[in-house]
Amino acid sequence: MSTLQNNFLWGGAVAANQCEGAYCADGKGISSADCITAGTVDKARVYTDGIVAGENYPSHEAIDFYHRYKEDIAMFAEMGFKCFRTSISWSRIFPLGDEAEPNEKGLQFYDDLFDECLKYGIQPVVTISHYETPYGLVQKCGSWRSRKMIDCYLKFCETIFKRYQSKVKYWMTFNEINVIILHPVMAAGIRIGKDENYNQVVYQAAHNMLVASAKAVSLGHSINPDFKIGMMMLYPTFYGETCHPLDQLKCMEAIDCHYLFSDVQVRGEYSRKALSFFRRNGIHLEMATEDALALKDGTVDYIGFSYYNSNVASHQMEKDMTGGNMLNAIKNPYLKASDWGWTVDPVGLRIALNNLYDRYQLPLFIVENGLGAVDKIEADGTIQDDYRIAYLREHIKQMKLAVGEDGVELIGYTPWGCIDLVSAGTGEMKKRYGFIYVDKDNEGKGSLNRKKKASFDWYKKVIASNGEDLEEEVGLL
């Protein structure tokens, strides 16, 4: 018998702004993601006057999923996907973010996309807001700096909840909601001036998002009680560098700022520790009188999270640093790293699953996990990505241990970038995650043709066996 439940949701994950392209097609408005030039998040430019001619904006074409989704969904079905995680572009539905009526062509696109998934028995898993905000709202009210965003967001939610209530069961309110404190530009199109209090801006924006999320959960349940509406966070497993008590304290502090978000969305209130953090740092949140009730009434049904790598914390800061999923951390001498410096730590996923389940006792959903790597097309036309197979295999093994031996309740697994797409963090195409190769380079050149990698057939066997056939002999981590 399989360790995993028979209806386990195997699949893959993408985001609208990283794969759809067609950035101004069929009435779509400009989003904050459309205004980010190629390059790392810290170096890319976001223009206050929108899009500037002559610059490279990777999201504008991306992999043209907007026009090629039928081909791609067919390939996902061939792998045996049970679900497909994607997002709905807010500016495709409300081009400026606050129109009186939605854009019908945008709504129809997602009708067609979800119908195509359902034709193959693939359940859509929808992230409502995934690293993009209508640029009209960025200009008009400063994005999530303003409480005005809450009503705009809820109108968007009501529109899509009602439109797709018979097609979508699983929803997530915000992608990696805790990233607002790490990279507000990418998460919400918010630039913070040098004369501003960074913490005040990001935690106020976070509060507005948390209230919006809670109200969306309540709204969704009122429209369709069968909806499963979850939160989604970047989960950063942290280790103390040594057994020095101050390293362990630093480790605790490093994760606490992320638990702040899941605590509110699962428990319906800020923890005493979070409130103390606000006081110590002079953060004064603007809260409406009804916010507390809204947060309590709008707790989530499950926890979705991303896990790519683990991190090391130390009270001694003069250390060699390495990359991570928007977190720069101390190098871990016991672990290897990816081409982009992200530590490869499958056991860290088991720890993450246990930490989250022990803390909340809610169903968990791994909605992002994967290896960004440079893939090479061999002389015979194949792409032998055994390193990706090894990464995923070892993480699935630890996932199964968390379920089978530790008792964690896990509903699904959707590796990130199941088809190659534009990297959110670097704007690159060469940083590939997919089971499916897309012919496009960093300069935007290529045919966009799709090609199966070796991992395609491997993952197909994994799904068909419900995680039992992992082909131990393929690839070494």
Automatic annotation (TrEMBL):
Key words of the record: Glycosidase, Hydrolase
Source organism superkingdom: Bacteria
Keyword Iron-sulfur (UniProt): no
Pfam families assigned to the protein according to its UniProt record, in alphabetical order: Glyco_hydro_1
Family annotation (SUPFAM superfamilies): (Trans)glycosidases (SSF51445)
Signal peptide span: none
GO CC terms of this entry: cytosol
Record bears the keyword Oxidoreductase: no
GO biological process annotation, one example: carbohydrate catabolic process
GO MF term set: beta-glucosidase activity
UniProt-listed InterPro entries: GH, GH_1_N_CS, Glyco_hydro_1, Glyco_hydro_1_AS
Family under the similarity heading: Belongs to the glycosyl hydrolase 1 family.
Name this polypeptide is given: Beta-glucosidase
